[in-house]
Amino acid sequence: MSTRQLTLGNFAAHCLDEIQTVQQGDTVIEILSEGKVVAVVSPPLAVEAAGSLADWMGSGAGTMSFGPGYDPNEPAFEVEDWEAFREAKK
User: Fold this and answer.
1) 14-18, 41-45, 65-69, 79-83 — which is least confidently predicted?
2) 8 A C-beta contact, residue 17 and residue 29
């Protein structure tokens, strides 16, 4: 893979052509401003398909757990607390 250096102005003037060159996968472009590299344009790394997110995480079947003393069937707050909250927002 080759590396080319272009000034920012030159890259801006020929941006589409330069991006198409990078898309072909054999060129990396370093963009210079005041003699320093300020950006690098390179083709993306090849990513192998690793399956779905569920495959990566596992099915999760049967693994639901809650903190100590938490019952998901109980309300998260008391009705009185909710009423007080609604009144405070008025």
Assistant:
1) 65-69
2) no
31: β partners: 6, 39
Is 31 buried (19+), middle (13-18) or exposed (0-12) by CB count in 10 A?
buried
Q: Are 28 and 1 in contact (CB under 8 A)?
A: yes
**Cβ-count burial 68-87 (b if 16+ within 10 Å, e if not):** eeeeeeeeeeeeeeeeeeee
Identify the H or E element spanning 49.
Answer: none
**Banded pLDDT at 19 (limits 50, 70, 90):** very high
CATH C-level class of 2-41: alpha beta
Question: Cα dihedral sign for 16, 22, 27, 28?
Answer: positive
Q: Report the alpha-carbon angle 69-73-78, nearest 5.
A: 80
